[in-house]
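S1.2 Input.
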Amino acid sequence: MSFWDHLDEFRSRLLIILATIFIGSLIGYSLSESFIQFLILPSQSLDISFQVITVTSMFMIKLFVCFFIGLLIAFPVLIYNLIQFILPALQVKLRGIFLLVILSSFFFFSGIFFAYFIIIPFLLTFLTSITFESVDIKYNFTLGSYLSYVIWTTFINGLIFQMPVISLIGARIGLLTPMFLKHYRRHCFIVFLIISALITPPDPLSQILICIPFVLLYELSIIVSKIFTK
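S1.3 Output.
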């Protein structure tokens, strides 16, 4: 296709994605209160209170949560259209597009749940334990900042869990070969350890617990690359 044909296809797929997110956000409106309670749940065991400081805070919070729910609902549609747009442009044919969408969604939501049940509790426990002995400190967060922190942490972790899927597509393109991934394995492991050390409390067990899934995902990416490399 010509450049304008690609641009027209991109516009069509973008409209489909935005429409799906919008519909998902409308569905999320009825789920927003329960979803907010679910996001607050990791903080219930800690001495944390929440507040809003502006008149429009609750309205903006609800919009933000509705958009995030819509994004979660639309994620399979987003991935499907992204793959369908990119692969033909790179002259790469890939069978089992729907299977790839299912795998991508599985890893994405696995990363979100891993962050919610493992990383977030660790981070909240560690960060709220930092106090001064001579000063009485009470943690009082704005509801918007807390929800934004939890949502972005879980969302980014979901994207990190896309490593095997990216490896599959990169292998078909010819960009991520098994040799390339093996060569930079040690470098990536060091990066994983640094990330784990930054986002967990300062004890080796927590760092290893967070680092293990990243290492396993990278090793899985190498296996996937071996299978799908031309």
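S1.4 Remarks. The chain has a mean pLDDT of 85.
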